[in-house]
């Protein structure tokens, strides 16, 4: 599992840090942070961020960044994608964890129990995911913060939900039920191979912009769905029962650790109705 940053440990793990965190949120200091990170004054921070997190950026790319935000929303070409139709791919670079959705329409993370109806604020839709699976993709500082579609299909409208901007690192999840407190946006996707899938993007500490410009449209596997703006966070996927099974290798790893690192476009699961003994595909295509 990836390490929790020192600043987040202070804010969530100490009484002084929790007081400061409440003050930050009460005074809406995120607005000041957003203004700074969009300004040319933040360019030195972008260079430090790249060095500190070991991000691969060419000198030519670095020269084009006029602010921290320019660095954060950078795009990359030729991302390897597993394009086998029955293969579920990761929507992003992240740390993956998996939770069953029980018959009370809940999933549990650390000390928090989440009702799907509270998470989506849609009781009728939540009932469809009883007994299903919840995949959580937690993005870290060094990850690419654009995300793609997991299959071909049709996306319905976006449902933005206002909220706070807690960290999504493990220590914060132990302290607060962040996934129902944080700003988030979800949509229902009718996918060709995995049935109706809910995807929800969740904002993170202080500045958690979520940029989803597409809705009520068909989409293709591997094409860009959206991106996070200025700070990373989390993507949650909800699958109905009997629609998807994770790769056995991932399940074995997750039986030993809480999170497994995955990359955007990586094969992580298979459609339930396809062969359980399917061999890995060579059909991996770069998607710009």
Number of helices in the DSSP assignment: 11
* Helix content class: 25-40%
Care to count the β-strands? 19
Alpha-beta content class? alpha+beta
What does the largest sheet look like? 9 strands, antiparallel
Q: Which spans of ≥5 residues are poorly predicted at pLDDT below 50?
A: 275-288
What's the structural blueprint in terms of helices and strands?
Layout: H1 6-13, H2 15-26, H3 30-38, H4 43-53, H5 59-64, H6 68-72, E1 79-82, E2 87-89, E3 94-100, E4 106-109, E5 112-115, H7 116-120, H8 123-127, E6 133-138, E7 146-148, E8 153-155, E9 159-161, H9 170-175, H10 178-181, E10 184-191, E11 195-202, E12 209-211, E13 217-219, E14 224-229, E15 234-239, E16 244-246, H11 248-254, E17 260-262, E18 267-271, E19 284-287
Antiparallel strand pairs: 1-19, 2-18, 3-6, 3-17, 4-5, 6-15, 7-14, 8-10, 8-13, 9-10, 10-11, 11-15, 12-14, 16-18
Helix pairs in contact: 1-2
What can you tell me about this protein's structure?
There is one protein chain. The protein is of the alpha+beta class and 288 residues long. The protein has helices at 6-13, 15-26, 30-38, 43-53, 59-64, 68-72, 116-120, 123-127, 170-175, 178-181, 248-254; strands spanning 79-82, 87-89, 94-100, 106-109, 112-115, 133-138, 146-148, 153-155, 159-161, 184-191, 195-202, 209-211, 217-219, 224-229, 234-239, 244-246, 260-262, 267-271, 284-287. The strands form five sheets. Strands 3, 6, 8, 9, 10, 11, 13, 15 and 17 form a nine-stranded antiparallel β-sheet that branches. A hairpin with a 2-residue loop joins strand 4 (106-109) and strand 5. It is globular, with a radius of gyration of 19 Å. The two termini are 29 Å apart. Residues 275-288 have low confidence and may be disordered.
């Amino acid at each position: 599992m990836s390490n929790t940053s020192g600043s987040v440990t202070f804010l969530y793990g100490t009484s002084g840090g929790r007081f400061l965190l409440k003050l930050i949120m009460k005074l809406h200091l995120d607005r000041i942070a957003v203004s700074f990170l969009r300004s040319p004054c933040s360019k030195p921070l972008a260079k430090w961020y790249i060095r500190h997190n070991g991000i691969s950026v060419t000198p030519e790319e670095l020269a084009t960044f006029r602010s921290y935000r320019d660095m954060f929303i950078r795009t990359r070409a030729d991302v390897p994608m597993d394009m086998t139709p029955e293969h579920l791919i990761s929507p992003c670079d992240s740390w993956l964890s998996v939770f069953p959705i029980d018959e009370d329409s809940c999933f549990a993370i650390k000390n928090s129990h989440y009702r799907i109806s509270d998470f989506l604020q849609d009781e009728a839709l939540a009932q469809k995911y009883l007994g299903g699976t919840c995949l959580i993709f937690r993005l870290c500082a060094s990850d690419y913060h654009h995300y793609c579609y997991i299959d071909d299909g049709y996306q319905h409208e976006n449902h933005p939900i206002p909220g706070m901007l807690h960290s999504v690192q493990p220590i914060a999840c132990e302290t607060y039920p962040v996934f129902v407190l944080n700003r988030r946006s979800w949509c229902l996707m009718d996918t060709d191979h995995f049935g109706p899938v809910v995807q929800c993007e969740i904002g993170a500490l202080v500045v958690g912009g979520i940029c989803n410009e597409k809705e009520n449209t068909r989409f293709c596997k591997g094409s860009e769905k959206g991106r996070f703006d200025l700070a990373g966070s989390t993507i949650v996927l909800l699958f109905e029962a009997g629609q998807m099974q994770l790769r056995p290798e991932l399940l074995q790893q997750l039986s030993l650790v809480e999170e497994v690192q995955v990359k955007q476009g990586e094969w992580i699961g298979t459609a339930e109705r396809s062969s359980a003994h399917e061999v890995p595909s060579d059909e991996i295509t770069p998607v710009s």
